[in-house]
Design a protein that fits this description.
4 strands; 239 residues; mainly alpha; 11 helices
Length: 239
């Protein structure tokens, strides 16, 4: 199921019909990314002002503070966006390892989406699409069978985790245009704050994300909810 989810996430957006069906999840991955920026800003003592998602799937998170953040805080906030989907995806994948967490994980993610819409989301696309995605999660948690619960978590986890790798070229881009305005990319902002080149930070983000995803997959598949295993037998039984 994890393999199926990975194929859908990586190949689906390029297919005409599947791309439209996956559009809500494209908006969801942008939400993971921008929430990573916003929540990191909160941890750095700033105020998370708003989260905006454009129809094309791009977006931004706006934060402010009484004083300008330090260079380290600015770099961490910039890194929080690309790492946000990987952190969320790893958490969802870990939840698939034990059936006791399947429904609570879906309820929890839906609750966070609802809270963010009420407090931070300030764009029509986000205000329409995100509540629908959250409502679908609640319906699945209420009425879905075990296989559907687990696959939903796996799909959402892989969706979030792989979205960062799908935007590989963005990580290695220093400058972007967002809403018609030129600005620094996340790794470009890290370069401006900490001097080391943006491609260096791109590599660091990829290594951290890969390590988190790999560890979560290893743990999830080793837990109760993992694939069935052959019971141990002694040599006599095999013969």
């Amino acid at each position: 199921m994890l393999l199926i989810a990975a194929v859908i996430v990586t190949s689906g957006p390029g297919l005409p019909v599947v791309g439209y069906l996956l559009y809500p999840f494209t908006i969801l991955t942008t939400w993971f990314h921008e929430m990573g920026h916003g929540l990191t800003a909160l941890l750095m003592g700033l105020t998370f002002e708003e989260l905006v998602i454009y129809p094309d799937g791009s977006g931004f998170a706006q934060s402010s503070g009484a004083q300008d953040p330090s260079a380290l805080s600015s770099a961490l906030i910039a890194m929080g966006g690309p790492l946000g989907p990987s952190i969320a995806g790893s958490g969802l994948i870990l939840a698939t390892g034990n059936h006791r967490f399947w429904r609570p994980a879906l309820y929890g993610l839906a609750a966070v989406i609802a809270l963010s819409v009420a407090i931070w989301v300030r764009s029509p696309v986000g205000l329409v699409v995100l509540p629908i995605v959250g409502a679908v999660m609640v319906v699945i948690a209420l009425f879905g069978r075990d296989w559907m619960l687990r696959f939903s978590l796996q799909f959402l986890g892989v969706l979030a985790a792989l979205s960062m790798f799908r935007d590989w070229d963005y990580l290695f881009t220093e400058n972007i245009v967002l809403g018609g305005e030129p600005m620094l990319s996340d790794t470009g902002a890290m370069e401006a704050a900490l001097w080391l080149p943006h491609w260096f930070w791109a590599v660091i983000i990829i290594l951290i994300s890969g390590a988190m995803i790999g560890w979560s997959l290893k743990r999830a598949l080793a837990e109760e909810g993992g694939p069935p295993r052959m019971p141990p037998r002694n040599i006599g039984q095999w013969l």
